[in-house]
TrEMBL record, chain A:
Name of the featured protein: Iron-sulfur cluster-binding protein
Organism phylogeny: Bacteria, Pseudomonadati, Pseudomonadota, Gammaproteobacteria, Nevskiales
Gene3D superfamilies: Alpha-helical ferredoxin, NagB/RpiA/CoA transferase-like
Pfam families listed in its UniProt record: Fer4_8, LUD_dom, LutB_C
Molecular function per GO: 4 iron, 4 sulfur cluster binding; metal ion binding
Automatic annotation (TrEMBL), chain B:
Listed name of the protein: LUD domain-containing protein
Every LUD domain range: 105-221
Superkingdom, natural source: Bacteria
Pfam families in alphabetical order: LUD_dom
């Protein structure tokens, strides 16, 4: 699914059928997800300790969200005092304009970027390229995808759908002077060399942020490769972009969230780097950016926040455990969803970002087995949120509440009619008896084609006699 | 509209939307200490052994030495690895004894990065740094780069040599940040470093030396023992 055609959430069903028919893709997702599931499980051997840690993480996120407006203002105040420029963006285009403005002020033609899902959400690379600015991905997985014109299929392991043979071909084609090899150590060495000069020369470094600490005005980045550190240390300007929900109140709230994140994401007790950035270069320091910017993006997050039924969506710390454990994601892969955030978390986040019209199928891509909610390290009741979104997509918004974007977009007349008739029958005993008497007598007239049901099953047909009639007969 | 007024407009709109929602009582402030697992020890031979085992598990090399012998350890390391240029910061606790340990190999990080970049990226084999403390639970190093030891000293050279004093070990990151009251004042950059840089982005195969150092050597100075002649 690489190259020319970008997947869209509207085409989820078509895309997932295509993915299901690709045995190589299925095998690579299956083995990768099994691997991550096992590694995570090994990190939480003591269920009691895990539950305590998880309930702490949940409380920290709930607490921060409950105080969100206050914490955002406190964060802004502390950042401003440190000399960080804080920008606010309601939409992706707002955010891209801010990037362009910063680049223009520095005459920058290039940026190096650490892994950031929010930058994918605003399609930063494409927008910068349209204005002649080369925004280079530096996370190895993201770099491979960028070279190939592809997009991430997993939020933690973006290039999980690529094999080393793919990478070998991509590098040989796109990196001048690189030898053809399928040795993974050599491939990484090639990527490292190619990106070194970009780090050295780029005037602007771009990153996301895993957490924002309100009390200290700190940006926190979690990573293994060191590219995030390079982006925040070498260029003269550092621009971080993240969603408004990432703020936590206190620095001491960081260690539990950090350990929940790394263990849930990749099954590591700790990553190579935990990078806490507090303000631009200070007097006498020899490196570090002279200018630090933080862009706070809304893009639908306030919609999830203002409705208490959906607020828990924003507790997410982007570990990806829900997708690793999802039987649907494991089979259809990340690209099928056609959204920045795939899998169960994507299905509950994307409707707020893109509206329920484009994303109406995503909340239905779940068997409601509950695995996602069970492994979520910050206690998001994902299955419940999926159910609420299914309802919101199909029902007229309640008049007393502000509607979600495109609420009721998937409402169909036939479906509404069926449910109205059902409600009528099942709430009136005599009507129900009359109906079931006829239905059992005329059972042979039931249509053989029954929509989605008969696509994989035999048609439903009423029994010759209803249970009520059989019982009445026996009593006689 | 100028970018700044545009941002102010977005700010007002976002905060107004957040404020318009019916208020919910904030839950009580979370009790972090109660939710974390009980701490192990942060000092003593067992803690040092735990730290070293854990750090080695992350592919760091750990060399234990004494407060008097560490320069010799450093010299042996430089010779064994054929290091030609080793970078360090002036005026640190290590600085006075580095010339004796490294001789002509020693380079000082004296210039601002912009001027020093070409040599830093291409002509330095290793960077030596002090360490603020170690975390026993995860085998991690805490670095606070500063005026003397810039961030890139532990980041750009392919080998990072970290000199850690055993007396600065803490059981967990949480204990360390609370005991040292980090929230009262953080440096521009505070780091937790665990092993050399790595990636598993190609078919989940683990490779060391992604973008940061390819190797991490921890020189673990046992300044916590009695009878060494050096105060613990």
């Amino acid at each position: 699914m690489s190259g020319d055609r970008q997947p869209r959430p509207q085409d989820f069903k078509v895309q997932s059928r295509a993915a299901l028919a690709d045995p190589a893709l299925r095998a690579s997702f299956r083995s990768a997800m099994d691997f991550l599931v096992d590694k995570r499980a090994a990190q939480f051997p003591d269920i009691g300790a895990y539950e305590r840690l998880r309930s702490l993480g949940t409380r920290i996120r709930e607490h921060a969200l409950a105080k969100l407006p206050e914490l955002l203002e406190r964060l802004e105040q502390n950042l401003t005092a440190l000399g960080v420029q804080v920008h606010w963006a309601e939409t992706p285009s707002d955010a891209n304009r801010i990037f362009l403005d910063i680049a223009a002020r520095h005459g920058a033609q290039a940026m190096v970027k650490g892994k950031s899902m929010v930058s994918e959400e605003i399609e930063l690379n494409r927008e910068m390229a349209a204005h002649g600015i080369d925004c280079v991905e530096t996370d190895m997985g993201e770099y491979i995808l960028q070279l190939d014109g592809d997009r991430p299929s997993h939020i933690i392991m973006p290039a999980i759908h690529k094999t080393k043979a793919d990478v070998s071909r991509i590098f040989a084609e796109k990196i001048p002077g690189s030898a053809h090899t399928e040795d993974v150590d050599e491939l990484i060495a090639i990527g490292r060399r190619a990106l070194r000069e970009r780090f050295r020369d780029a005037p602007i470094g771009v990153t996301g942020a895993n957490f924002l600490v309100a009390e200290t005005g700190s940006l926190v980045l979690v990573e293994n490769e060191g590219n995030g550190r390079l982006c925040t240390s070498v260029p003269e300007v550092h621009v971080a972009i993240t969603g408004i929900e990432k703020v936590i109140e206190r620095l001491e709230h960081l260690p539990p969230l950090y350990t929940l994140l790394t263990r849930s994401a990749t099954g590591q007790a700790v990553t190579t780097y935990l990078n806490i950035v507090t303000g631009p270069r200070r007097a006498g320091e020899k490196d570090g950016p002279r200018e630090v910017h933080l862009i706070l993006l809304d893009n639908g997050r306030t919609q999830a926040w203002r409705d208490q039924r959906f607020r828990a969506t924003l507790q997410c710390i982007r570990c990806g455990a829900c997708m690793n454990h999802c039987p649907v994601y494991t089979r259809v892969g990340g690209l099928s969803y056609g959204t920045t955030y795939p899998g169960p978390i994507g299905a509950i986040v994307s409707p707020h970002l893109l509206g329920l019209d484009a994303t109406r199928d995503l909340p239905t891509a779940s068997s409601l087995c509950g695995a996602c909610g069970e492994v979520c390290p910050v206690g998001i009741p994902i299955p419940e949120l999926l159910m609420r979104l299914r309802g919101a997509a199909r029902r007229r918004p309640a008049p007393e509440r502000k509607p979600l974007r495109d609420e009721g977009a998937a409402r169909s007349r036939a479906e509404t009619l069926v449910w109205t008739a059902w409600a009528l029958l099942y709430s009136r005993a005599r009507l129900y008896r009359w109906f079931s008497w006829w239905a059992t007598r005329l059972r042979r007239l039931t249509p053989a084609w029954q929509g989605g049901w008969t696509r994989g099953r035999v048609p439903l047909r009423p029994a010759p006699r209803s249970l009520r009639e059989l019982l009445a007969q026996r009593r006689r | 509209m100028t970018p700044d007024t545009e941002s102010m407009r977005a700010r007002a709109a976002i905060l107004a939307r957040l404020r318009a929602a019916p208020p919910v009582a904030a839950p009580a402030s979370p009790d972090v200490a109660a939710g974390l697992a009980a701490d192990g020890a942060g000092s003593g031979d067992a803690a040092v052994a735990d730290f070293a085992a854990c750090a080695r598990g992350w592919r760091a090399e750990v060399i234990e030495t004494t407060p008097t012998r560490w320069p010799a350890v450093l010299r042996d390391l430089a010779v064994a690895r054929g290091l030609r240029s080793v970078l360090a910061g002036r005026d640190t606790e290590l600085a006075a004894r580095l010339p004796e340990a490294l001789g002509a190999r020693l380079r000082w990080y004296d210039e601002p990065l912009a001027a020093f970049k070409p040599r830093l990226f291409d002509a330095i084999d290793a960077g030596i740094t002090t360490v603020r403390g170690g975390v026993v639970e995860t085998g991690s190093l805490v670095l606070w780069p500063d005026v003397r030891e810039p961030r890139t000293l532990s980041l750009v050279p392919p080998l990072h040599i970290a000199v850690l004093c055993a007396s600065t070990l803490h059981p967990t990151l949480y204990r360390m940040m609370v005991r040292e009251r980090w929230a009262d004042g953080l440096p521009t950059n505070a780091l937790l470093v665990t092993g050399p840089s790595k990636t598993a982005d190609i078919q989940r195969l683990l490779v060391y030396g992604a973008h940061g150092p390819k190797q991490l050597v921890i020189v673990l100075v046992r300044d916590d023992r009695d009878g060494t002649g050096v105060p613990a």
